[in-house]
Amino acid sequence: MSGIVESAGTEAARRLPDGQGRAGLPEGQAEQERTVRHTLMDVALEVFTERGYTDAGLTEIAARSGIPAGTLFQHYGGKRGLYLALWEEFREEQEHRTAATLTAERSRGVNDPVALFVAGARAYLEGAWDNRRLARLLAEDDGPAGFDALRRQWDRAWVRRNARLLEVDERRRAGRVRVSVLTTVIGGAARELGDCGDGTEAREIVDEVCGILVHLTTPPG
Questions:
Q1: Of 9, 18, 113, 120, which one has the fewest beta carbons inside 10 Å?
Q2: Domain architecture of the chain: domains with CATH
Q3: Where DNA binds (residue ranges) (predicted)?
């Protein structure tokens, strides 16, 4: 899953040893560059949310952030790079959240595949609510060229991961379809969370969806 998109200015800085930043810069300068990147991404999210990706302008992003357009191009290569960096950040946060939840559940002795699957789904949905502005943006059809194909690729990887978690035989079409349906339910609920009025309504939806997942994963008879 990681590696589907490698957005400029995100992966390199995360993987450098302590004391060095991008391209071996001193830590102080590297920290300044990280701040610049985070500022650009925060402002890009605001502008994309307000205008949509197509109508968003790099000039406005640069002006709001107070960072020259040339610096924006240096870190992200343009508007598409900024959008994909936001997507990568969302994916990584969601993957980290769900993985941490599964690790915690297993450490408590939980080993039932359905219980683990539902716990992971709850963590994913709670993350979608916490990051609802970004989740809502990424669910829209207005994205850069080629983004739909990347999203479908990630969706297929997500289905495969869920199949392994549920211990479903992926060689059987019925098993693949069942996991695909369950994954679609989670994705649809995550989009609905973006329109919730408050945390109480969001929690009700998360609880409802988790109940549906339990029902759908219960063997017939």
A1: 18
A2: 11-217 (1.10.357.10)
A3: 57-76
